[in-house]
Give the backbone structure.
Amino acid sequence: MNGLLSVLVTTGWSTHEPDQQHQFERCLPPVFKAVQDLRKSLGEDVTSVDMEVAIVNPGEAFNPMWMEDGYGDARALSGSGKKALEKVSGTTGLGLRKISMKRTSKGQVPHSQMVLLPKVVLEDTVKEAMDPAPPPWSRLRKEPKRHGDRPGTGGGGGG
């Protein structure tokens, strides 16, 4: 507070009465709050930013907040939806995470934000690809053989 009073004395405003100084001090919190809000909106509360590659380890539970199912459309068409406990088989597309250090009343605190979600393939998707569903029953039925359909039986009427 003495520093501010020194600035005011330098500019020509001086008071030595405690009541005026106290009144001046009571007017400062809204000014400081406005300055703090302005700094925050300008991003000055962020002291450093790092970007890092984001991948998902095999076996982790699928979480759509932190990753994207790279084969979600194909699985949705086959009728199987994602379950909360599905496991990740591997990362198929790298993600990007922004890590910034923010100033708080407790000091510097790291803050993580996903800029681009990593794409993953789920274990069930790999299992489906390795063991495809059998074709429909209608394709398995054998049609009765006709004599004219086999080559060399003379069913073509040539001659």
